[in-house]
Amino acid sequence: MKHKLDVRRMTELALLMAVVLVMAYTPLGYLRTPWGLPITLIPVPVVVGAIVMGPKAGAFLGLVFGLTSFFKTFGDSGMGPLMLEANPVGYFILCVGPRVLVGLLPGMLYKGLKRFGKYRTLSQAVCCFLTPLLNTSLYMSTLWLLFSDTWLAYNAVEGSGFSLLILMLSGVAVNGIVEAVACLVLGTAVCKALIRVLHRNEA
Asked: pTM of this prediction?
């Protein structure tokens, strides 16, 4: 019986990992915006895995998310290659570290909240809403810590007093809110359906 459960968990995790990979390497995962910064929906399968399968699964999916972000840099024409050149180790940490925590922390939060059985759906909604905000805040704070002494600290416009990093923080903050709403709607619906189908004892 335990072997069947292990196989089922591995299958579920593999399917969610496949969803992360498909979203990462197709337009499904990154929606273009008029203000130039893409909105990413990849935190959705990450938080779904964290809620349905637990913090460890969430951390693994976050790791996959982070690795795809890092490897997509090669051949990219954005600022990723410039940051990679300025600080390769720091850039790898930037891409991977926050994303692992994005899978781990919501899973731990849900593990605590789900003890309140009748508020299970609300707990899922809270975790889904917070995950993109956590992704944005962790990424940008790590960016600040690792790259605040590089060219990102230079003035975006001479004499303006606004560095490129500050302008990036402002733009990404808008994205974080949009991503949080999208993850709230999509993530909560998917979690509720999967828990009913795959984990009837938790529903």
From this structure: 0.84
Residue 39: strand pairing partners? 31
- Angular region, 54: left φ>0, alpha ψ -120 to 50, beta rest: left
pLDDT value of position 203: 40
How far apart CA 134 and CA 83 sit, in angstroms, is 22
Q: Where in the sequence is the domain holding 92, given as residue range(s)?
A: 2-198
Those residues with Cβ within 8 angstroms of residue 93's Cβ, 6 or more apart along the chain or in another chain? 142, 146
Tell me how crowded residue 29 is: count the other CB atoms within 10 A of its CB.
22
- DSSP 3-state percent helix, strand, coil across the chain (nearest 5): 75, 5, 20
Q: What is the pLDDT of residues 120-160, one digit of tens each?
A: 889 999 999 999 999 988 988 888 888 777 766 555 445 44
41/39 Cα distance (integer angstroms): 7
* CATH assignment at residue 59: 1.10.1760.20
Q: How far apart are CA 180 and CA 110, in angstroms?
A: 16
Domain count across the chain: 1
Report whether pLDDT(87) > 50.
Answer: yes
Residue 203 in domain:
no
